[in-house]
Amino acid sequence: MHEFDLSSAIVATVNKHAEGRRVTHVTLRIGRLRQVVKDTLEFYLAIVGKDTPCEGATLEIIDVPAVLVCDTCQNEWQIEIPAFICGTCGPGAVEVKTGEEFMVESIEVEDEEDAACTAPR
């Protein structure tokens, strides 16, 4: 159900910024540490977006790798599983540099002129 709540927040954000215009494309930026199941998110987006300006919009998800940085030596590395130990210094203080992102990167909307146009593009 985590993805259902995320989908609801995405649709609310996108609809707010679309200002009633039909949304044709949504780009999301999701960090690996967010533990989002992308197929489930897409499934719920289709359900939550039904009968809203988001209905039928295509979705692009930018996968942001989890990158850590050591506070001691400034070594940076990507992780696949959470293992917060510097490979250079060993156990100590590390910070998450990237991987916790969850944001709507951009949306594309249909202009009123585009909606009225019936000519092939």
Structure summary:
The protein is α+β, with helices and mostly antiparallel strands and 121 residues long. Helices cover 27% and strands 31% of the residues.
Record the strand order, biggest sheet.
2-1-6
Q: What's the CATH topology name of the domain at 2-65 and 99-110?
A: hypothetical protein PF0899 fold
CATH class of the domain at 2-65 and 99-110: Alpha Beta
State the CATH architecture of the domain at 2-65 and 99-110.
2-Layer Sandwich
Strand runs, count = 6
- Contiguous helical run count: 3
Mean pLDDT: 83
Give a description of the structure.
Strands 2-1-6 form a three-stranded mixed sheet, covered by helices on one side. Strands 4-3-5 form a three-stranded antiparallel sheet, with no helix packed on it. The protein contains three helices and six strands; from the N terminus they run αβαβββββα. β3 and β4 form a beta hairpin. The C terminus is likely disordered. It has a domain of 76 residues: hypothetical protein PF0899 fold (2-Layer Sandwich), CATH 3.30.2320.50.
